[in-house]
Hints:
The chain has helices spanning 9-23, 30-37, 41-48, 51-75, 81-97, 107-112, 120-146, 156-174, 180-192. It is mainly α. The longest helix has 27 residues, at 120-146. It comes from Paenibacillus dokdonensis.
Amino acid sequence: MGRHKEFDQEKAVDQALDLFWEKGYESTSIQDLCDHLGIHRGSLYDTFGDKHELFLACLDRFSERADENYNYILNENSDSPKEQLERYFSKVIDVSMNNAARGRGCLMTNTTLGPVAYVPNVASRIEAHATNTEALFFSFLMRVQKKGCLKSKHSPRELARFLAGTKQGLHVMARTAADRSVLEDFCKVAISVML
Length: 195
């Protein structure tokens, strides 16, 4: 009879995600993961396959968390799209600046900037995450346009891409910004372009 796994796999993915987010994929070793998760190498390999497969599971979990953390804000029905976008970006700043390792930015953005981004199954997850972010903004902006609140001469598609870039830029800036107002000013200008 096989031995039962003695750890919670969901919790292990969350813990591994935090470690990869803090150290980056390249700087995280199998031993780091084993120590951080409190499991043996055999259990890690039996459950997740290898470091790369565990990392892919972490990227998937991270994308799910975006909906829980802030994406839901743009799907709400609101009378004030400007206030809605301000709340959204405020939450993005919170997540980027006030996480377990302050100033670690965004796991997906950090991964985009590293060598592992060129690995096909990582690149496809990065692309899917970016596509979903753009689609979220596009859907939001289409609703804003129908309400007659969109003041930009640019199309909702162009603005969605601009906002997706703004969000990614926030994550990068959060890694070094000591003062939240720097990021808030960045968002204020971006929002003023369209609302």
